[in-house]
Prior knowledge:
Helix content is about 25%, strand content about 30%. An eight-stranded mixed sheet has the order 3-2-1-4-5-8-7-6. It is of the alpha/beta class. The protein is built from five helices and eight strands. The model has no long low-confidence stretch (mean pLDDT about 85). The protein is globular and about 40 Å long.
Amino acid sequence: MRIISGSARGRKLAGFSGSQIRPTSDRVREALFNILANQLGSFADKKVLDLFAGTGALGLEAVSRGASIALMVDRGTQAAQLVEANAKACRVQEKIRFLRGDVLKKIPELTGSGPFDLVFLDPPYGMNLAENALLSIAGHGLLTEGGIVCAEVSSSEDLPERAGNLSCILRRRYGSTRIVLYSITDTKA
């Protein structure tokens, strides 16, 4: 794994052991960031939230492309170590903050840090965590107007068209991975 673009372009990210972390492949990450660039315009000065952060690759890619900060949340000790090592390798430690704990329990605690312009949601496959996280993100007002939640799930998992005030704006499938983007819509519609 490596950073694809921006100030840390080409930097290799630290690896991992076991099955606790399933990183987004470089190919899917590149396609995703092309889509996000079209949706958001620039990453400059964006606040990023990376839930189920794993290696931190998604948040680090956003920071490499100009995001001002990435708050990463994951429950794993290995994830905490990987994010720290990868932030150091990318020379962006000052723009990365890590919170360790159960993501669904931590979301309500993030209201003081948000709202965020971009939220990555990459839970373990097959545990149906994405929909609950989407509802919690919406319920706690963690997304800015015009912001995007990017959910990555198994291609066999289907996410709803709406979750609270979030509406699906795009779906793409890449092999065994499905990417679903959400944005805030008028709840009176």
